[in-house]
Amino acid sequence: MKKIITFGTFDVLHIGHIRILQRARALGDHLTVGISTDALNFSKKQKTPIYSERDRMEIIRSIIGVDEVFLEHSLDLKGEYIKQYQADVLVMGDDWAGRFDHYNTLCEVVYLPRTEGISTTSTLEEIRRY
Ligand code: C2G
Q: Among 64, 76, 80, 69, which residue's Cα sits nearest to residue 34?
């Protein structure tokens, strides 16, 4: 069985998130998703996500093709998570291209093209203007 792992915040879920999860899953037989904690987001952006980590986990867990979810507490623990979840492939969007290449000693590293024209930030801006 080929196991895939991917990571993200997945706040205010949109079509870009769904597509990357589906394309990641299509690369193997099992998809594990690490959901960034509220604290990890705060440390990166000085903001907590709109949806709590508990809700974001529940939302992602309910998507067809997602087999397993867990909380990602630190960006630097990816190697540990890859080993813990026995991943054969790490998938990330190409906004992260090159950033995780050093994990190729543990598993294959694949960057998939992002969906153009949509992001959580742009969605929130549109909602504000609505
Ligand atoms: N994504 C995409 N197309 C978009 C927006 C996002 O393909 N239009 C992808 C991103 O490339 C990422 C995933 O969806 O692979 C989740 O995106 P974010 O929620 O923005 O996650 P991010 O904050 O980039 O991840 O270890 C990484 C961290 O968990 C943070």
A: 69
